[in-house]
Amino acid sequence: MFTTLLETQKATVTVIIFVGTFFAALTIGRLLKRRAGVRLGVLFQLFCLTVAFYAATSFYGVHVGWRNHVDAAAILLSTAFVVALLDRYLWDVYFEKKRQTPIPEFLRQVVALFVYLIALLLVLSVVYHAEGQLKTLLAGSGIAAIVLGFATQDL
Fold first, then answer.
1. What is the gyration radius of the CA atoms in the chain, in angstroms?
2. What's the first-to-final CA gap in the chain, in angstroms?
3. Which tens digit of pLDDT belongs to each residue from 38-79?
4. How many Cβ atoms are within 10 Å of 132's Cβ, its own excluded?
5. Which helix (H) or strand (E) holds 115?
6. CA distance 52 to 18
């Protein structure tokens, strides 16, 4: 009887942690959106769900094989949040308002792509332990970049 009561209380606290973490993260996002003008979308809401799920499973003590996938999703979705913050504070506030320098949309997208690429390599290396495959991929892409550089040299 005592163990079922304890298990019920643990499940209840886990649900409270999930809901509380989700709404706390959403509130932070809404404040950033309304007060600072940070453009957050569906990816931020998915990030909030992932963080809440991660907090709840960590409290409950779930250790399963698919936890790596939750780690990877949390890292990649947090990258979307970082890109939104970079877009607002680096490009809009610092360069365009403070320095009066217009930044082309192409440069913003290239930097965002670079940040996503770094996050993806981090996920593959740290979460999935694919260092061997990454070395081969990076070596192949380096050779392709050298060939492409020599091919476009006359342009």
1. 21
2. 79
3. 888 898 999 999 999 888 888 887 776 777 888 888 899 999
4. 8
5. helix 105-122
6. 5
